Amino acid sequence: MSSLLGRYATPFITGLFIVSLVSGLALFLHVGPSGFHAMHEWLSLLLIVPFVLHLWKNWRSLTTYFKRAPMAIALVLSLAMAAPFLLLSGPAGRGGPPPFAFSHRILENPAADVAPLLGVTPDELTARLGAAGIAVADADEPLSDAIRASGKPEMAAIAALVGP
User: Fold this and answer.
1) Interior/surface letters 104-127, b for 16+ CB within 10 angstroms, e for the rest
2) Whether residues 9 and 34 fall in one domain
3) Looking at the domain assignment, is residue 15 inside a domain?
4) What whole-number distance in Å separates Cα of residue 125 and Cα of residue 101?
5) Residues 153 and 113 in one domain
6) pLDDT score recorded for residue 94
7) Do 157 and 129 meet the contact criterion of CB atoms below 8 Å apart?
8) What is the pLDDT of residues 104-150, one digit of tens each?
9) 92 in a domain, yes or no?
10) What angle do CA 74, 78, 83 make, to 5 degrees?
């Protein structure tokens, strides 16, 4: 079994890296189908498995790299390139891609304020949410509070809000 895993570790690293490379470039360039996002995230996570197997299989030879300057230089430069993305991104919290951040901000408002944006009355909006299992007790209550109290996912609430 170990031989089988070792034999496939590097080919899977290669294949999954190519998938990650293509999907990452497509995401960066904002081209291609929407499935690239999920594909990139999930298959990049799956890439961890053959990577660990590759490290395990080649551990002895890999340790020699850690005794030389190029590995230290590459690791330090990699961290230095990653740092600005974390330092300049602001505090942790809800946000994410602009459409998600936008929807989070909209849902922080009460039904009375959100309903006109969707072309419905506050009563129609609360009825839609109620049908999805999200009870809005007061039209002046932030929708995010009602969603949180219901235990339903935010995406289910958004689907109910924009649905027929």
Assistant:
1) eebbeebbbebbeeeebebeebbe
2) yes
3) yes
4) 21
5) yes
6) 54
7) yes
8) 888 899 988 988 988 898 888 889 899 989 898 887 889 889 898 88
9) no
10) 150
Q: How far apart are CA 76 and CA 65, in angstroms?
A: 14
Query: Rounded to the nearest 5°, which phi and psi values hold at 58?
Result: -110, 20
129 close to 136: Cβ distance less than 8 angstroms: yes
C-alpha to C-alpha distances, 21 to 27, 59, 105, nearest whole angstrom: 10, 25, 33
Domain boundary among 57, 87, 117: 87
Q: How far apart are CA 20 and CA 30, in angstroms?
A: 15
Please give the structure tokens belonging to residue 131: 């049908």
Q: How far apart are CA 86 and CA 19, in angstroms?
A: 25
Q: Both tokens of residue 64?
A: 């020699």
3-state helix, strand, coil in the chain (%, to 5): 75, 0, 25
Q: How many residues does the chain have?
A: 164
Cβ 53 vs Cβ 9: under 8 Å: yes
Q: Residue 20: CB partners within 8 Å, gap ≥ 6?
A: 40, 43, 44, 47
Q: Is residue 46 over pLDDT 90? A: yes
Q: Give the end of a domain, one of 67, 87, 107.
A: 87
